[in-house]
Amino acid sequence: MMRQLCGLVLLSGMLLAPPRLTAQDEAVVEQLAPVLAAEDARDWQPDLFQRALLAPDSLVRRTAALAAGRIGDLRATPLLLRVLDQPDSTVRVAAAFALGLLGDSTAVEPLIQRLTGLPPLDTATANEAVTALAKIGGKRTADFFASALGGKIALSQADPSPALGQMLLESWRLGQDAQAASLLPFADDTVREVQWRALYSLGRLRSPEAGNHLMVALRAEYAETRATAARALTREYARAAKLAPATVSRLLARAVDDQDPGVRVNALRALGTYHDSLLAAPVASKVEDPDLNVRVQATSSLGDLGGSVAAATLRRLVQSKSGFAVRREALLGLARIDPAGFATVAEPWKSNADWRARAAAAEGWARGGHRGTPAFLSDRDGRVIASGLQAWADTVAGPEPALIAAARRLLGHADAAVRSVSADALARAATPADITPLVQMYTRSLRDSFPEASLSALGALLAISKSGGAAGSQIDREFLAAVPRPANYLLRRWAEANWPEAAERWGSAYPLSTGRTLQDYRELTRQFILAPDSLARPHVFIETEQRGALEVELFGPEAPMTVANFLRLLDRRFFDGNRWHRVVPNFVVQDGDPRGDGFGGPGGSIRDEINRSRYGAKPMLGMALSGPDTGASQWFITLSPQPHLDGTYTVFGKVVGNFGPLSRISQGDLIRTIHR
Description:
53% of the residues lie in helices and 6% in strands.
């Protein structure tokens, strides 16, 4: 999701008192605690997992199977494949899911054999085996999916339709290897779930052959099918599919009046990609829509379409009494299509006491062609500088001299986000003269509560080292040979992925020191894995000012460390007074950043706990990340089905009860409190 790196919170001393367990349950605790510890440290211990995967208790076996997948060591593949033959279906399904997390291509043929051979897999395991194949990908998987969907290969389940449906939904993961032609017959299926799954994958794949099917689907009975079609029908896609842009845009213009707000949002977003001012009139009519986030999206799309109608509407909205989210989008849209008009209305924003307004003005300056001197560079709040500088970098190509000069002046700024964005800009220039300041900035940034500035310094130093000449030897002397091995595993992991010379000196990112004791993992096991649902699945309430309260059920058994960490932050009132800093209509609402700009967190990070829960039709609670194993305090709630998030972002809860307040949340709304 957004950039965010967050805080490790130790477990001891803050959990609710766990229930009293039997001697047999305590024996299970003793087996599970070291498994959880190994998973958290990303430490593959062959002997431990061989024992756990053969333990008498099925809970131990399935927990070990899932942990093996999360650790990600491919040496687990043979063990997990053998688990697929165990009699307990809950263990088999965990093993199939874990094989998908590993992504080992050697598992492709065994998984295909289990889907087509005897004894047949149960439905849940077959579905996870299909998903695992899609995650692994490759031509062999693509051929198998196409043959199964086309009836050339028979699956061995008594009712293969669930597994075939899973193939439809997961085919987007295959990318260029996907055989879209095998999905097309299902794009007009009379079973709405089948049709939606096929169209979802075809839309994600941007398959040109699906163009006519997607246009027809704009009139489908099922709202989610209409929304999926609208999202896919961008101008870029219309051209690739050889569809007449005027025809497609007319259909989308009708869809902005759909009865479902999700369809309206997706149609408005797609219309914005056509950059045709003639489409502004139907879009402008939706800035008065009853649904707040439809209004936000309509305002944003006007800034993409341009023209006199759009400009006049945006000028009116900037100066209206609409909420912050609408006025912000209006200001940014006006900057893009009418820089002179932006200049006339931006002055009050530049001097506003609220840093968010000044940040919007700074971003607007960049989006509007950055005319004149950027006053935001001397703003008293680093969040304003970072926002403006990032927008400036986003709107220019290469090392623009004025941008590079500003970045050099700001490299020593007190705010870590400003340093991060500055270093990213300097990476474009890749100038040896920046080596020493970057090394100094890296060293200083190791004390930050989030590692973005350190990572950006590494990226800039690497770019300079690749520029040739004497730069490489200077970096080796001043940086690689001089700085100690970083304690933060995220920096070591970055080096492993990007900079072999640094990785050779610093060693592997994993296994890591978690700061937790075995007793901490025993307590986690008692509280969330062995406890009854009334304790293991606690409910919390999110109260947003003027929007109402949301009730959320947390998934302790599926993500015990994530839930424990969330509850500790909640009990510290960490979230109280924050604002919803990111709201994408019909996608997600996001919180958990006390800075309010996407960078913040309490320091440190926790590991992902990817599980079988899906981002489906119900609003789901997930951890926001800037890469694997970087989550902690920032989280999001989905506003519509988002299967592409499955298997990447930890699901650790769901909204229950009244969903109404969720649809009323907009960017900038204040969270009064989150409590149990």
